[in-house]
Design a protein that fits this description.
Helix content is about 50%, strand content about 10%. It is an alpha/beta fold.
Length: about 350
């Protein structure tokens, strides 16, 4: 390509720009971002060639990439539609697809392709971006009603060149899948963050609770826009959690532990045993374990987890504590049952 525009140089947009530059996919890469310090950093590191203003003529860009929070899409797409860049391919890199395609201006429907790289971090901003962020990760591509086939092929080829694995999924299915394997784990991490271990010096604990540190501002719009799918799966999660809470109240610890292990078993086989003999911050680890297994008991998980990214893997990694000695686990559940039940009551309010 001759000229590409990236709108938004945060973690995802910055990483995409760096990957494009590294693979020499375009002669020129331009960017728009309201943070001038970010633009200067990108220019000084030779990732971008110039700063674009969205009011200017966009006809000369072969590819326009929207990499902003979802809340800004409406205004950005309206501006692009007004300037009507007929020869440009337009893609987005956000977490939801159906709502974007449904509200897409008519004159952009042939040019626009909804994309979602399954890559990310709890860290944000251009300074944390990396040209390798998309390497060996799924790159979801959703066809619109009128998307031109040649444009789809171009984006598929770009995804391959930056080391990603293109996957074509229908937009409605995408939002249901990622509502379950991405958005719900993040929502549950925020919901239970108050009851997470205070000191996370152990690498195992850091990874298992990593999603707690994600940007709530970025995720708030995702939760709102995918509310229908989130609510559907949350109801099932909460029914599962109540079943486990009942077993604890009835002191059926052995039955509870057997159920936890059986539900986690398919995923548990792929995880290493933790490198500690006893659990740190016992009640909080057991509580998060029960939260995660309640999530893994959702019926569609087994069929959809192959779509998941690192967030799902880190969130569910807490189940590897089930590989510890059974007697230690039973004693821990018994000793911490009052505290665990109090945590469950608090998130039930």
């Amino acid at each position: 390509m001759n000229k590409i525009l990236i709108i938004g140089l945060g973690l995802i947009g910055g990483s995409f720009a760096k990957a494009l530059r590294q693979q020499k996919i375009s002669r020129e890469i331009w960017a728009f971002d309201p943070d001038i310090a970010t633009i200067n950093s990108a220019k000084n590191s030779k990732i971008i060639d110039g700063f674009a203003i969205l009011d200017q003529d966009l006809q000369n860009f072969d590819l326009i990439v929207i990499a902003t929070p979802l809340a800004f899409y409406k205004d950005i797409l309206a501006k692009i539609s007004e300037l009507d860049p007929k020869n440009s391919i337009i893609i987005d890199l956000g977490s939801l697809k159906e709502c974007v395609l449904k509200t897409l201006p008519q004159n952009l429907q042939k040019n626009f392709i909804a994309c979602h790289p399954i890559a990310g971090s709890d860290k944000t901003g251009f300074d944390n971006s990396s040209s390798d962020l998309f390497f060996d990760k799924k790159f979801i591509i959703c066809r619109g009603k009128n998307t031109e086939e040649k444009f789809l092929k171009t984006i598929e080829n770009i995804a391959i060149k930056i080391g990603a694995k293109p996957n074509f999924i229908e937009a409605k299915a995408h939002d249901e899948i990622y509502g379950l394997v991405s958005h719900l784990p993040q929502f549950l991490s925020f919901l239970t963050k108050e009851f997470s271990p205070e000191k996370q010096n152990n690498d195992f604990i850091k990874n298992a609770f990593r999603l707690d540190n994600s940007s709530a501002e970025i995720w708030e719009d995702i939760f709102k826009m995918n509310r229908k799918n989130l609510e559907k799966f949350y109801i099932e999660f909460f029914d599962n959690l109540n079943d486990f809470a009942t077993a604890i109240r009835q002191k059926k610890y052995d039955e509870l532990l057997t159920n936890l292990i059986n539900i986690a078993a398919p995923l548990l086989e792929t995880l290493p045993k933790p490198d500690f003999a006893t659990l740190p911050q016992l009640s909080k680890v057991i509580f998060r374990l029960i939260i995660v297994v309640s999530y893994l008991k959702i019926k569609k998980i087994q069929n959809l987890q192959n779509y998941a990214g690192r967030g799902f893997k880190d969130f569910t990694s807490i189940i590897s504590v089930l590989k510890l000695d059974r007697e230690i686990l039973l004693k821990t559940i018994e000793n911490e049952q009052k505290e665990v039940l109090s945590f469950i009551r608090k998130i039930s309010l």
